[in-house]
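#struct-pred

JT: dropping the chains for the assembly here, can someone run the whole complex?
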Amino acid sequence: QQQVKQSPQSLIVQKGGIPIINCAYENTAFDYFPWYQQFPGKGPALLIAIRPDVSEKKEGRFTISFNKSAKQFSLHIMDSQPGDSATYFCAVSGGYQKVTFGTGTKLQVIP
Amino acid sequence: NAGVTQTPKFQVLKTGQSMTLQCAQDMNHEYMSWYRQDPGMGLRLIHYSVGAGITDQGEVPNGYNVSRSTTEDFPLRLLSAAPSQTSVYFCASSYSGGGREQYFGPGTRLTVT
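RK: done, full complex below.
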């Protein structure tokens, strides 16, 4: 059973656009929802994370929106730049449960 | 701090050979884990450890062994390499349980022929 479903698989936006990446989960015991950013040839790096007691969290140009009732969360990148071109992974975990990652979204921001 | 380090960066093995992928962290993190990354499949957890002397299986543990004798080191052993183990392997560490806020190493690209 897939713990988290991520979409889309790939995304192309123009510079300045707002790409949105979505993740859906099933287990209501999850209480930590991070997003990781990975550049080619590098390891993933934590970008931003949210807990289910808030509906939105912003860090710079990156925003997580969280919908607890729908069991969905999404990453929005404001004023996207070519330097944001990377693969983005959502993940879910709860308590001492193992972390499960989404399958990734390859984002390309074209000038 | 060096963070999470992994060696080697690249490795080619023949089917049936064994090897150990090294992982070390200098952040005094208790939680460490190994992932493999394959195209279209994201990151899949192989094994993890919540502290020295304690390890457990992840999603895809078959063909891999781990041990955790110190807080700093968490090596991954391939017992008898198979072409299906061709992948990029990442080690990660975290100060908190459940793998929150993980710091990843640069990865090891392994090819099994």
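JT: nice. The interface with chain B takes residues 6, 9, 32, 34, 36, 41-46, 49, 89, 93-104 of chain A (CB under 8 Å). The two ends of chain A are 39 Å apart (CA to CA).
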